[in-house]
Amino acid sequence: MNKEVIVEKINYFLVDEFEVDKDDIEPNANLKETLELDSLDFVDLVVAIEANFGVKLTGEDFQNILTLQDFYDLIETKIG
């Protein structure tokens, strides 16, 4: 799966399942602040990633994830 498909899928479920405004989705967006994701949303995000990409994420995976780009890169690495 290439990076473009990963980004497209992530952006789709952020808008569809998390009701994030499409205009707020940009690579340098801060996950917690700009996208207003709280800790419960992160749990739902992990479940969505597992369902859409078949990879498991842990709390440790998110330690250095600040932006949406960081998140895209994490998923690409996990799939790789």
TrEMBL record:
4'-phosphopantetheine is transferred from CoA to a specific serine of apo-ACP by AcpS. This modification is essential for activity because fatty acids are bound in thioester linkage to the sulfhydryl of the prosthetic group. It comes from the Bacteria. This is Acyl carrier protein. Pathway: Lipid metabolism; fatty acid biosynthesis. The lineage of its organism: Bacteria, Pseudomonadati, Bacteroidota, Flavobacteriia, Flavobacteriales. Residues 4-79 form the Carrier domain. Carrier of the growing fatty acid chain in fatty acid biosynthesis. The modification O-(pantetheine 4'-phosphoryl)serine is found at residue 39. GO terms for molecular function: acyl binding; acyl carrier activity. The keyword Electron transport does not apply. Pfam families: PP-binding. Gene3D superfamilies: ACP-like. One of its GO terms (biological process) is lipid A biosynthetic process. SUPFAM superfamilies: ACP-like (SSF47336). One of its GO terms (cellular component) is cytosol. It is found in: Cytoplasm. InterPro entries: ACP, ACP-like_sf, PP-bd_ACP. Belongs to the acyl carrier protein (ACP) family. Keywords: Cytoplasm, Fatty acid biosynthesis, Fatty acid metabolism, Lipid biosynthesis, Lipid metabolism, Phosphopantetheine, Phosphoprotein.
